[in-house]
UniProtKB/TrEMBL annotation:
Gene3D superfamilies: 3.40.50.360, NADPH-cytochrome p450 Reductase, Chain A, domain 3 (1.20.990.10), Nucleotide-binding domain of ferredoxin-NADP reductase (FNR) module (3.40.50.80), Translation factors (2.40.30.10). This enzyme is required for electron transfer from NADP to cytochrome P450 in microsomes. It can also provide electron transfer to heme oxygenase and cytochrome B5. This is NADPH--cytochrome P450 reductase. Residues 77-222 form the Flavodoxin-like domain. It is a single-pass membrane protein. Keywords: Endoplasmic reticulum, FAD, Flavoprotein, FMN, Membrane, NADP, Oxidoreductase, Transmembrane, Transmembrane helix. GO terms for biological process: response to hormone. GO terms for cellular component: cytosol; endoplasmic reticulum membrane. Residues 277-516 form the FAD-binding FR-type domain. NADP(+) binds at residues 296, 530, 591-592, 597-601, 634. PANTHER family: NADPH--CYTOCHROME P450 REDUCTASE (PTHR19384:SF17), NITRIC OXIDE SYNTHASE-RELATED (PTHR19384).
Length: 673
């Protein structure tokens, strides 16, 4: 047998065996299975998707040249407004609208949105005119939106405005030290830079009859414009609509505004920074009544600002956005016979206007009347004039138009029937049953509901995540027997801690009401009633500084209220501060606990010598907060008398002395009327 493999020989010698054993087959199957599993389960590379190149539109930029805008839209009158509470803006809109009746075309403008350095270029437009409706805020300051314009006027001495025609209507309050300071400054400064005044400065007094002041000025202003430019009134006194109504029958409710001030859904997804156009929703953690007895309701609220990145200093103001009473809103809907839950937009007929809507749209009538429109203040004369056409009774029409006129009889009727009787728009509609205006026109005419400002009653050194508010609830009976309620204070009163409506849309407004830079300077604080608010923050801060080992000067408090056992608010806190020497002297005047009235100024006069030493020798800073009409003036007079007696001055010298303290920032006021 030829060369045989020994292994083969062995196999053939006995019983024949298979080519592969069971173990071989098992191992082979396992390997094949693992290979198949690997191929099947390994991650395939994902295909790279093809993206189409998108045509991205160039982002639109807001037109900052008002001259180019006026040329583009055929306008020749521009009405700038410096407004803090909305009144100056309202007057500006009325003047811009008026211009159409005189063959001219006007636009209202926020100076913050435009380059005011272009005023000289206004001469490029034939028969052009700039009107300035300027309110004064605080201690003779410009409003927030007019601050840049004010700075520009101060800094540009070489500006030539010789081609500019202008006039100014100023809004102020006679109870304040610097009455109409901003309007007077703009009027004087524009003339200094060469501009031509075509009509006298108008002065409106919010403590008196602001609406009457404006109407009287306006009635004389337009004839002067006609004479200057050689134009005539059209004679058309019909109502001019600025917005057109669009009713949305099929709208995505996620695109509908529900009370947001600026960005849609901003109350659901909060993003800093927080300001007037983007308020922070602060939870209310404390809401307690401060007074022990009496028929008033004084309250202390605490707002939680944890995580908001909001910073504040003692003396700043907190602004809150209130909402109107739902009862008033429902009554308006009933009396006008409308479904308040219809989704609408009011769209500006002037497509080039920066102001596309009078309030955030689309929204419902209910939301507009609840969050966006002022329905509690007496309506201004222009609202009555525009609505008169909807009265079916000729007598109602006549009276409404009469109240909007500048005739003595019309002014008296408006003063008595609207202002003195405190009639809001609902009361007007109730007392004039023939008046049935379309709700969209009413919403166009009503002014915006404004934020309310409160002096912060806490120090961020002690309460970095909390802002405290001290306020008195406003409620009174009118001559017509109605009960009127203050919008913000009643809304705040009903903010239940951990309740359904326990958040407050708010932001901070910086103030000049500041503690001295040197803690060693003494401070004299005069704040009766809720005027104590900023001083609670001051006392907390001075106490904190003392605990840090800083040298802190005398901290003197003058507080006043009616009765010790009724409205001595923060009594425990003040007495504790005095006990801990955070307050070196606490003087309290209880005005009605004895036969004769005792006020804070009487206590000032009792401590004349000590006060004079603090002011004249120790460089004390004086702070006054509260009522501007009486208290602030009486306190100032008390300081005149102290300077006269202990500084051996005449009244004129004493007045100058106090005024110099104000100029140096050593006599500060946070007052209201």
């Amino acid at each position: 047998m030829a060369d045989m493999d020994p292994e083969t020989t062995t196999n053939t010698a006995g019983e024949e065996e298979p080519l592969f054993s069971n173990l071989d087959l098992f191992l082979f199957s396992l390997i094949v299975g693992l290979v198949i599993y690997w191929f099947m389960s390994r991650k395939q590379p994902e295909p790279i998707p093809e993206f189409k190149k998108l045509d991205t539109p160039t982002p639109t930029t807001r037109e900052t040249s008002f001259v180019e805008k006026m040329k583009k839209t055929g306008k020749n009158i521009i009405v700038f407004y410096g407004s803090q509470t909305g009144t100056a803006e309202e007057f500006a809109n009325r003047l811009a609208k008026d211009s159409q009746r005189y063959g001219m075309k006007g636009m209202s403008a926020d100076p913050e949105e435009y380059s005011m350095g272009e005023l000289a270029r206004l001469a490029e437009i034939e028969n052009s005119l700039a009107i300035f409706c300027m309110a004064t805020y605080g201690e003779g300051d410009p409003t927030d939106n007019a601050q840049d314009f004010y700075d520009w006027l101060q800094e540009n001495d070489d500006e030539d405005l010789s081609g500019l025609n202008y006039t100014v209507f100023s809004l102020g309050n006679k109870t304040y030290e610097h009455y109409n300071a901003m309007g007077k400054y703009v009027d004087k400064r524009l003339e200094e830079l060469g501009a031509k005044r075509i009509f006298d400065l108008g002065l409106g007094d919010d403590d008196g009859k602001l609406e009457e002041d404006f109407v009287s000025w306006r009635e004389q202003f337009w004839p002067a414009v006609c004479e200057h430019f050689g134009v005539e009134a059209s004679g058309d006194e019909s109502s001019i609509r600025q917005y057109e109504l669009k009713v949305h029958t099929d709208v995505n409710m996620n695109k509908v505004y529900t009370g947001e001030i600026g960005r849609l859904k901003s109350f659901e997804v909060q993003k800093p920074p927080f300001d007037s156009k983007n308020p922070f929703l602060a939870p209310v953690t404390v809401n307690r009544k401060l007074n022990k007895a009496g028929d008033r309701h004084l309250m202390h609220l605490e707002l939680d600002i944890t995580g908001s990145k909001i910073r504040y200093e003692s003396g700043d103001h907190v602004a809150v956005f209130p909402t109107n009473d739902s009862e008033l809103v429902n009554k308006l809907g009933e009396i006008l016979g409308v479904d308040l839950d219809v989704v609408i937009s009011l769209n500006n007929l002037d497509e080039e206007s920066n102001k596309k809507h009078p309030f955030p749209c689309p929204t419902t009538y209910r939301t507009a009347l609840t969050h966006y429109l002022d329905i509690t203040n007496p309506p201004r004369t222009n609202v009555l004039y525009e609505l008169a056409q909807y009265a079916s009774d000729p007598k109602d029409q006549e009276n409404m138009r009469k109240m909007a006129s500048s005739s003595p009889e019309g002014k008296a009727l408006y003063q008595n029937w609207v202002l003195d009787s405190c009639r809001n728009i609902l009361a007007v509609l109730e007392n004039m049953p023939s008046l049935k205006p379309p709700i969209d026109h009413l919403c166009e005419l009503l002014p915006r509901l404004q934020a309310r400002y409160y002096s912060i009653a806490s120090s961020s050194k002690v309460h970095p995540n909390s802002i405290h508010i001290c306020a008195v609830v406003v409620e009174y009976k009118t001559k017509t027997g109605r009960f009127n309620k203050g919008v913000a204070t009643n809304w705040l009163k009903n903010k239940l801690v951990n309740g359904h409506k326990s958040t407050v849309p708010m932001y901070i407004r910086k103030s000049q009401f500041r503690l001295p830079f040197k803690a060693s300077n003494p401070v004299i604080m005069i704040g009766p009633g809720t005027g104590i608010a900023p001083f609670m923050g001051f006392i907390q801060e001075r106490g904190w500084l003392k605990q840090q080992g800083k040298e802190v000067g005398e901290t003197v408090m003058y507080f006043g209220c009616r009765h010790k056992n009724e409205d001595y608010i923060y009594q425990e806190e003040l007495e504790e501060a005095e006990k801990n020497s955070f307050l070196t002297q606490l003087n309290v005047a209880f005005s009605r606990d004895q036969d004769h009235k005792i006020y804070v100024q009487h206590h000032l006069k009792k401590n004349k010598e000590h006060l004079w030493k603090l002011i004249n020798t120790d460089n004390a800073h004086i702070y006054v907060c509260g009522d501007a009409r009486n208290m602030a003036k009486d306190v100032q007079t008390a300081f005149y008398e102290i300077a006269e007696e202990y500084g051996s001055m005449t009244r004129t010298q004493a007045t100058d002395y106090v005024k110099k303290l104000m100029t140096k920032g050593r006599y500060s006021q946070d007052v209201w009327s």
